[in-house]
């Protein structure tokens, strides 16, 4: 067994340029040409589709040998047809029968967009029925045509949204649920909140639908608007879920409204005991505390989280490590990853590897190597890219002895893996 190296335990800030990791030396895809080809083929197809006529399918068949080599043909053609206001249903039906050109789920959504742009809701219903039959989910891309133009009125968007909802209700099937959610999301993304609320009210009100609106308001920094949606949820009998509360919490903290955020956490505990604060709530709180350099407050929140028997996600550990590191508290970062290797062992590999990466990027390759060495001493394999980069940096600075030492330790894991086969 190796003798534990004395300098491995030394404080990082005092690392000697000639420090050793141990007490003794151990022996050891798409190109521009493709894009141009796709665009050229798409233009040829669009011209044929625009011309129409009874021979369209035969004309497309004659082009097929060249078209089959264009991987993005269907999607690019659908977008071009929609931009030019040309119906795409006939082309889509032809493409669905061709081997090597069959439409993807994304292409099905583009077909819905095409029908919506032309206000052809019968064609939309047929496309929806096809998606339902094939069990393909709708995305908000299908409803991108609802974005109001400079010349359109909000009322016309609401009318179009109601027409879409009627089509979804008529077709039903597996795609209706994804369709309603995506419709609400598309409307919220373009600021059509009244239309989105109308859709929610005409369907079974669900927290995930309202959460789309809350998230959009919070993203815009409109806490008052987000709170109005929150209150509307409760008025209609739709109970906010943990995500709803967490959106509001994140919005307050992002905008520096700490006192209100603390009040909201207390409200969470009163209204949803045992559900919120949840692990994401604690992560939001610690992230903003770490970002503000309030590391002691962040640590108290972490302790409270462990007391509630909740396990931190790796992103939460990253916030602590980076918070300490960028505040110049390197030893505290080292202590944190060491403590967490006991309290949350499954995160140890990534925590140590992250600290090593940060040290290496700051020009402290020897300290980075020491961190990786300590990790391997615990019987844990470091991130491979971190190990390789640190070893290369050590070689560049003339410390091949330390690089060899790391390599020797790392090779043990490969040997163990081979023995287990």
TrEMBL record:
<comment type="similarity">
    <text>Belongs to the PPR family. P subfamily.</text>
</comment>
<feature type="repeat" description="PPR">
    <location>
        <begin position="241"/>
        <end position="271"/>
    </location>
</feature>
<dbReference type="Pfam" id="PF01535">
    <property type="entry name" value="PPR"/>
</dbReference>
<feature type="repeat" description="PPR">
    <location>
        <begin position="278"/>
        <end position="312"/>
    </location>
</feature>
<dbReference type="Pfam" id="PF13041">
    <property type="entry name" value="PPR_2"/>
</dbReference>
<keyword id="KW-0809">Transit peptide</keyword>
<protein>
    <recommendedName>
        <fullName>Pentatricopeptide repeat-containing protein</fullName>
    </recommendedName>
</protein>
<feature type="repeat" description="PPR">
    <location>
        <begin position="206"/>
        <end position="240"/>
    </location>
</feature>
<dbReference type="InterPro" id="IPR002885">
    <property type="entry name" value="PPR_rpt"/>
</dbReference>
<dbReference type="InterPro" id="IPR011990">
    <property type="entry name" value="TPR-like_helical_dom_sf"/>
</dbReference>
<keyword id="KW-0677">Repeat</keyword>
